[in-house]
Specification:
Layout: H1 3-31, H2 41-49, E1 56-65, H3 75-80, E2 82-93, E3 96-103, E4 106-112, E5 117-121, E6 126-131, H4 146-157, E7 162-171, E8 174-182, E9 190-197, E10 204-211, E11 219-228, H5 233-236, E12 245-250, E13 269-270, E14 273-276, E15 286-288, E16 295-300, H6 302-314, E17 318-322, E18 325-331, E19 336-342, E20 348-353, H7 357-368
Length: 372
């Protein structure tokens, strides 16, 4: 072997070793000794909920294994909930932030400003201004950033959920305090949620959601790097460079299958669970139950809804025997969904949530029996 070839191999060995070290950093980091100031689970919960206004910047990854089928109109959701999502994040305030989703094909960026929201696609070199409000919005990558996900889960857990402490853990080089949230409703598909946060500020750093009977989290999202950040306007403002195209689109146009919502008056209760008031502007969606055992109901019009049933059946969904209608059930480690087409209506109902199939089947049977 020549001296030149030997030197080249050594150089590449150093590069490979560096890459391996970077990949191993999270496991090395978590193995280091950890000590945090005393903080109770209740105190940490309060600090997490109060951390929404903290400015920060970092890099996060989510790893989801929900096992959802690839349904027409929901491809963005299924890719988000099955696989690894890599995100660069900057937040100045709850209404001023940016999340870049990184992939081998480029990046897909979402900007939220106090006045508007924008989407940038590096593949098409297209910047889109989103006009209006989403009639119903599917989860997006920004919802999986640890602070956003942790606060939402804690807010929705409700008073029946039990909150207990966990051993501290080092996350992104920070000694983090932990807490576990256990649902109080046995019908919930969530076994427990584990959250680690910076103990003083309450900034969430790592979130793990476990389904019942699962030894591994169905969803894990964590910062690999994060630090306080002095907001920079140029980073939070979409920049139009040479060759950048610009367009505008309504939120409804970007909602996929949810852009075809039907106008329907839903019953006040289903499967023994009362309907709770929806958020402003979401009157077409029914939310039933409380805490981590809620489910949503909406109706999708025409052929769009019927194609969902056909797609779910083709991807292994279980056909439901429902009087006055046809239906398909989908069960994953965490999410249960039922697609129902009652005989008396042209629309298709979508029922989905963190509840058992038995609960959604009862709710679907009640919907099918309604005199639509």
């Amino acid at each position: 072997m020549s001296v030149v070839r030997g030197q080249a191999r050594r150089r590449w060995a150093v590069v490979a070793g560096g890459v391996a070290l970077l990949c191993a950093l999270p496991s090395i980091d978590s193995a280091l000794p950890v000590s945090v100031p005393p903080v109770s689970a209740v105190q940490l919960r309060t600090r997490i909920l109060d951390s929404a206004s903290l400015p920060y910047a970092g890099y996060a990854e989510s790893d989801a294994t929900f096992g959802l089928p690839a349904l027409n109109g929901f491809s963005d959701l299924t890719s988000l909930l099955d696989g690894v999502t890599r995100m660069r994040v900057w937040q100045a305030a709850p209404d001023s932030w940016r999340v870049d989703v990184l992939s081998d094909a480029g990046e897909h960026d979402t900007y939220q400003t106090p006045r508007a929201s924008y989407i940038w696609d590096s593949g098409t070199q297209l910047l889109t201004e989103v006009l209006g409000r989403y009639p119903v919005r599917l989860p997006r990558a920004a919802d999986l950033v640890p602070p956003a996900l942790a606060r939402r889960l804690l807010a929705e857990a409700g008073p029946r959920a039990r909150v207990t402490g966990l051993a501290p853990r080092r996350v992104a080089g920070i000694a983090a305090a932990g807490l576990r949230v256990t649902p109080g409703d046995p019908a919930s598909t969530v076994a427990h949620i584990d959250i680690w946060a910076e103990p003083a500020s309450g900034l969430p750093l790592l979130v793990e959601i476990f389904g019942r009977g699962g030894g591994q989290p169905a969803l894990e999202t964590q910062f690999l790097q994060v630090a306080p950040w002095r907001p920079v306007t140029a980073i939070l403002t979409p920049q139009r460079g040479p060759g950048t195209a610009f367009t505008q689109a309504t939120a409804a146009d970007l909602s996929g299958a949810l852009g075809d919502l039907g106008a329907v008056i839903l019953p006040p209760s289903l499967a023994g669970r009362s309907r709770i008031p929806p958020p402003p502007g979401f009157d077409q969606v029914g939310i039933y139950g409380r805490g981590l055992a809620t489910f949503a109901v909406l109706q999708i019009s025409g052929v769009t809804g019927l194609s969902l049933i056909g797609g779910a059946r083709a991807d292994g969904g279980t056909v439901l025997k429902v009087r006055h209608g046809t239906g398909v059930a989908i069960s994953t480690s965490l999410i249960t969904a039922v697609l129902l087409h009652p005989s008396a209506t042209a629309g298709t109902f979508v029922l989905a949530g963190f509840v058992s199939r038995q609960v959604l089947t009862r709710a679907a049977a009640a919907l099918a029996a309604e005199p639509w």
